[in-house]
Amino acid sequence: MKYSGRWHTESYTENIVAVGVYYFHVDPELKGGILKFRLKKAPQDSYGGVTTDFEVDLIRTGPAIVFSNSMPYRFRQIRNLTPHDGCR
Q: Which ranges of the chain would DSSP assign to H, the alpha helix?
């Protein structure tokens, strides 16, 4: 089974300023799921600028991250490599 998240920020109507992600438990059957940020366009010498992306590999038990809700983010593909159910 595979899952890929969409680029998004949390609700604008609720004035959410920060987002936190913490994994209390991640089953070893799950692989992937890197947290990816789409930052604002950065200046570049050539015309148009360049969009910069930033990735954080935190899909394992224990780590936490808090970031500004102004940065769109998504979780990259998470795969379960076994026939057993996995959870995160």
A: none
